[in-house]
Design a protein that fits this description.
The complex is a heterodimer of chains A (89) and B (411).
Chain A (H helix, E strand, L loop, with lengths): L7 E6 L7 E5 L4 H11 L1 E6 L3 E6 L2 E6 L3 E4 L5 H12 L1
Antiparallel strand pairs in A: 1-2, 2-6, 3-4, 4-5, 5-6
Chain B lengths: L3 H5 L8 E2 L2 E2 L1 E2 L10 H14 L9 H20 L8 E4 L2 H16 L5 E5 L8 H10 L2 E5 L9 H6 L5 E7 L11 H10 L3 E5 L11 H4 L3 E5 L10 E5 L1 H6 L10 E7 L4 E6 L13 H17 L1 H19 L5 E3 L11 E6 L4 H10 L2 E2 L1 E3 L4 H6 L5 E5 L6 H15 L2
The chains are: A alpha+beta (89), B alpha/beta (411).
Amino acid sequence: MVALEDYVARIEETCGDEKNFIVIFKYDKKGEVIAKILGKAKKEKAISTIIFELTYDNVSFRLYGTGKAIFRGLKNKEELKNFLSKLIM
Amino acid sequence: MLDPYKIREDFPILKRKVNNHPLIYFDNGATTQKPKQVLEAIKNFYGKYNANVHRAVHTLSQEASELYENAHEKVADFINAGGMEEVIFVRGTTEAINLVAYSWGLHNLGEEDEVIISLMEHHSNIVPWENLSRMNGFRIKYAGVNEDGTLDYESFENLFSSRTRLVCISHVSNVTGVINEMKRIAKIAHDNDALLLVDGAQSVPHMPVDVKALDVDFLAFSGHKLLGPTGIGCLYGKQEILEEMEPFHGGGEMIREVSYNPATGRCSISWNDLPWKFEAGTPNVCGGVGLMEAVKYLEGVGMESVKEHEVRLTEYAMERLRECKKVKVYGPRDVSSKCGIIPFNVDGLSSHDVALFLDSYGIMIRSGFHCAQPLHQRFELKSTARVSFYIYNTREEIDKFIEVLKELERF
């Protein structure tokens, strides 16, 4: 049974008023995760394969080719994890 | 003049790639990279000299003790302290400030007293005082900051009263790089019979700092920000003040005698000499040795040269940042009044987006509040991106940084 933890190495809540969540995907899974996300989310804009502005389920986020993503407007880690489950599982 | 290309040869980490790009390390305000001389000193200590200090008569302990004491002497000399009695090794700047708060402040600040802090302080020079104020009831007054990030000296001077006992202020802001006029601040503090504690975390690694010339009462700084290992830092204090202070931590090493009195059922304790009175328990001996080597390295380069190199880089970076139309730089434009730190934002993007994008190209910068939320509130900023330079950074690295920023502006 595949779990979210198999893909996510770390979640960091950023300091500052913006309350963003930065998700760092596991290095050996980053290609798979990026492909899954790009397959599901709507691409708004991008610079090559370096940065993607995406939306999924009314949530806007940015995905980086390095296997990191920054999520805005989510209330807490639980909401983020639920969202990530829908996005990559 | 300093040669950054020659210096880079001493830093193994600068040879690595990050995300398939050569590493460009612009997060020196957070921590600095380590030269091979420091790495070798650490390895050499554990390989040849490791023993507990001041505890045993055997040869290894004597050698380790001598190294650890030499480290104190070297650091004392580096900041022109009166001697190693005035140099206490701690974990870092934060612990040094907490030491003053709980060893001096706890016993000397009461409900009638006032402490002056500035709005540009790192949280490490705010939180200990706010915490202690809740315990002891003294009042904290915050000095304002001008639009360009410099200290508002008029408002600062107006905060003093006959109740002012202590001024706690950074020598260099970790957000804007502004250099505060420490001699002027020391004179104002002392004219008002207040002591002065200086957070030197961003000054000691980047410019010559002479505690006697500046006439500061306490100076706190970290080893890891000046090429040394993490977990070691320093509190300088004037000897006459340190002698009067109570110890911070209790335990071995910091005592001369712990004598049990059967009549009272208690132990009477006498303190060890300075600086050991403030270094309870087995100290970070290897950290001290690494710090000594880092100081030797910086002395070899020359602190005037370090400052000059950073000023040149900052000048160049500020000039090139003007080419980036969506970039807004904060802090003073006059490079002569600041160190090599530049805070900025890119229009329409969070500082974290900027940092993540640059990371894709192997460029490491900091984003967020940089542990200085009140200063960001002062400028109504949600966060900032920050580049901070050191001796191994080059103009070519700044060129690459600008090239990537320009690409990000297209997003």
